[in-house]
Amino acid sequence: MGYALIISEVRRGVFEERNLDAIGIANLAGKDAYLLIPEGNYNINGNMVDKIIKVKTEESMFLNPLIITGLITKIMDSSASPEMVIFTHSSSGIEMASYLAGKMGLPIITDISGYEKNGDIFFKSYYSDKVFGQFKKTKESPLILTVRSGSFKDFATDKGKQAEETTVEGLSGIEERSFIEYVEEEKTGVDITKAEFLLSLGRGVGNKDEIPKFEELAQLLKATISGSRPVVDKQWLPKERQVGTSGKTVKPKVYLAMGISGAFQHIAGMKDSECIIAVNKDPEAPIFQYAHYGIVGDANKIRDKLKDIIQGG
Ligand SMILES: Cc1cc2nc3c(=O)[nH]c(=O)nc-3n(C[C@H](O)[C@H](O)[C@H](O)COP(=O)(O)OP(=O)(O)OC[C@H]3O[C@@H](n4cnc5c(N)ncnc54)[C@H](O)[C@@H]3O)c2cc1C
To answer: What domains are defined for the chain?
Structure first.
């Protein structure tokens, strides 16, 4: 059995939960799971992997594709090559995986969300889960993967024995790129993760001028406004209101999504809400697969109608 090298994602001493998806696919594919991680006091269940390779380096070095590529090359030169090198499908994971693939001329499949052991087939989706692609490894060289958050964590199970641990030296002398600092997001006092009722807005609401009208509805419903990433990128809402993989994970009692398509990066941040209600003019919108209640229609017209009803109009 070959091994899969998993490149950990760590931030400020925290072992990110999405690493479990990378460990999960290694287990599912029947590979020994070797975890590459900076030296430090990380809260890892050492029984989920076969080997932990600690690198004598600072955590921030694990954001540097040059360092990671150098480390992986060193590991490959000194021992057997991994069959897979697995990254999380996060901004930093995507950057490092693509750099490694380009630099070493290795095959890469990004954003894997499914795997079929019988046939060794990897799945990824296109167009917000409307079309799926199947991929198969055709060469003997290591395969680089980035893994979609939430797809494989259930397979990151206890192996019943503590992982072997080794420590390797870090890399020095890489000066083309250096870490400066983590930048904190601006906080204005609203914490969408604490809200019981979220009225969440997507690109489908049309334009920034519509937002105050949704705020009026939110007031009537005693809801807090949140949104999808495009709404934040367009600066219709502040960043702290963003739900999803690069925003916040929320679990309100009610999640009312208006004009949101349901891309997996958004779904990952709200799928555990107790009651999901979706309003979208496209009956095929993926969000309806996750919604407990769905309304096919124009979000702005439905907003005005709801306001009228609540106000007794
Ligand atoms: C690394 C990475 C991280 C990401 N992180 C996040 C994240 O944290 N959060 C996030 O949300 N996205 C994230 N994304 C973006 C994500 O892939 C989607 O692009 C995004 O979620 C789409 O937002 P949306 O649903 O508002 O817009 P769209 O996908 O454009 O959907 C708009 C929807 O509105 C509907 N619509 C249009 N007009 C109306 C109307 N009048 N009434 C009702 N419905 C209407 C349309 O049918 C459509 O379904 C990330 C992407 C990447 C690559």
So the answer is: 3-169 (3.40.50.620), 192-310 (3.40.50.1220)
Question: Whole-angstrom Cα distance, residue 123 to residue 149?
Answer: 14
Backbone angles phi, psi at 86, to 5 degrees: -115, 130
- Distance between CA atoms of residues 67 and 56, nearest Å: 12
pLDDT at position 36: 97
For 254-289, write each residue's pLDDT tens digit.
999 999 999 988 998 999 899 999 999 999 999 999
* Residues at CB less than 6 angstroms from ligand 1: 91, 202-204, 228-231, 242-247, 259-261, 263, 265-266, 269, 279-282, 285, 298-300
Condensed to tens digits (0 to 9), the pLDDT of residues 95-139 reads 999 999 999 999 999 999 999 999 999 999 887 677 889 999 888
Label residues 274-311 b or e (16+ Cβ within 10 Å = b): eebbbbbeeeebbbbebbeebbeebbbebbeebbeeee
Contacts of 138 (CB under 8 A, 6+ apart): 107
Q: At what angle do helices 65-78 and 91-104 cross, to 10 degrees?
A: 50
The pLDDT of residue 313 is above 70: no
